[in-house]
Amino acid sequence: MTTPSGPAGSWPLRGAIVGVAAVIVIMAGTLVGALMAGTPRASGVAAASPSPAASGGVPIGPSEPGATASPTTPPPTPEPTPNLVAAPLTGRLVSPEAAAHRVIAVMIDDHSDARPQAGFNAASIAWHAPAEGGIPRYMLVFQDQVPADVGPVRSSRQYFIEWAAEWRAMYVHAGGSPQALATLALKGRGQYVWNADAFRWEGSYLWRVHGTRFPPHNVFTDGDHLRALAVKIQAVDGTIPAAWAFGPDRDGESRPSGGTIKVAFPYESITYRYDAATNAYPRYINNAKTPQVDAADKRVVAPKNVVILRMAFGALNDGHPDKHRLEAADVGHGVAWIATGGRTVKGTWRKSAITAPTLLFGPDGKPIVLTAGQTFIEVMPLTDAVSIHDGRIGMHDRLQGVDSGLR
């Protein structure tokens, strides 16, 4: 029998050591297996991924038995900030699409039987001027806002066309004086305006209201139909240059308390009462104790700016003296009273051509800065009365630029 070489008695000792080591290895393997048996086995992808803490994510706490880890949900993508621009006729911040809307001018009835009229509060500019027989008429100019109901729509006059021509507007009316209709026939394809006569488009884009209204004070439309009509007659949207400058609302502490502006036509008087809380001019017809309300949105009519243009009017020699129609010296220049932020200044208006804008200048000859928002323009014959009383700041400080009891 051959025995291992080495010192006598070394084999039994080596065997014992080997045996003990084998037992230790077996016990360690059993312990590891037991520990792993109670822990879910990760997939190969998870095992290869770094821990949340190591990768900058939110650490995940101990899992429930049998649960599987889920990836951290990424935060939602923030909505982009809307790109707003100043509307050319109001200075209000609007979308670029709204700022490029085609200007739409609509003739509005001012007979007492036409009240309450609709569409005032959506207008960027409202023109109010004599028409015939001492009764004035409105032209509502829409641009960045699409109105709801609009009406009653009435007939055209030459000088209203020339104000609408400042914007190459789509001009909406129901008939008109012979002079106005002749102009629209020659210059109504975008040269001055885009002609939109209710007599042609009634039944599709304009309609008559029955029951609560009666002719001729019952022709109405709305903003969606007006926009569709503009497309129909190819009065497309596009870039519109601004003619006036606008600024933000006056600081509340610098707004005066009270103040009134009153204009008197032969048919009616209009009073604006400045409201410091809203920095606007609620509008009152005749001696009403409550302000005018727009029939479309049931809200008070209260423009941010009130402009009075003094202008010469004369009888229109159109072969119909019984109609008492007028013409106006709207191209040229004259005195203007401009009220904004509760303060009124005496300046000038200038219009160099039929399609040129009516510009407004202060007493220093510089362009006026209006408050962003709606502007009402009262065009007053030289003989009609105008009265302006600005409010006060504090107890004794009388505001400048005011001449009460004007004619």
Walkthrough of the structure:
The protein is an alpha+beta fold. It has two domains: 85-232, YerB-like fold (3-Layer(bba) Sandwich); 245-398, YerB-like (YerB-like fold), CATH 3.50.90. The protein contains eight helices and 24 strands. The chain has a ten-stranded mixed β-sheet, sandwiched between helices. A five-stranded antiparallel β-sheet has the order 14-13-12-23-24, with no helix packed on it. The longest helix is centred in the N-terminal third of the chain and has 28 residues, at 10-37. The relative contact order is 0.13. The model is unreliable at 1-65 (pLDDT under 50).
What descriptive keywords fit this protein?
alpha+beta, YerB-like fold, globular, 5-stranded antiparallel β-sheet, 24 strands, 18% helix, 10-stranded mixed β-sheet, 407 residues
Provide a concise account of the structure shown.
This protein is an alpha+beta fold and 407 residues long.
Topology of this structure?
Layout (H helix, E strand, L loop, with lengths): L9 H28 L6 H5 L3 H4 L29 E2 L6 E2 L1 H4 L4 E5 L16 E8 L2 E8 L6 E2 L7 H7 L5 E4 L4 H10 L6 E4 H4 L5 E2 L10 E4 H10 L12 E3 L9 E8 L4 E5 L9 E3 L19 E7 L1 E3 L10 E3 L3 E9 L2 E9 L7 E3 L7 E3 L3 E7 L3 E9 L3 E2 L9
Parallel strand pairs: 3-7, 4-22, 7-8, 11-21, 15-22
Antiparallel strand pairs: 1-2, 3-5, 4-5, 6-10, 9-10, 12-13, 12-23, 13-14, 15-18, 16-17, 18-19, 19-20, 23-24
Number of contiguous helices: 8
The CATH superfamily of the largest domain turns out to be YerB-like
- Please tell me the CATH architecture of the largest domain by its name: 3-Layer(bba) Sandwich
CATH topology of the largest domain: YerB-like fold
How many domain modules? Answer: 2
Mean pLDDT, all residues: 84
Q: Order the strands across the largest sheet as they lie in space.
A: 8-7-3-5-4-22-15-18-19-20
Biggest β-sheet description? 10 strands, mixed
Overall 3D shape = globular
Rg from alpha-carbon coordinates: 39 Å
Q: Distance between termini?
A: 146 Å
Low-confidence stretches: 1-65
Percentage of residues assigned to helices: 10-25%
> What portion of the residues fall into strands of 2 or more residues?
25-35%
Total beta-strand segments: 24
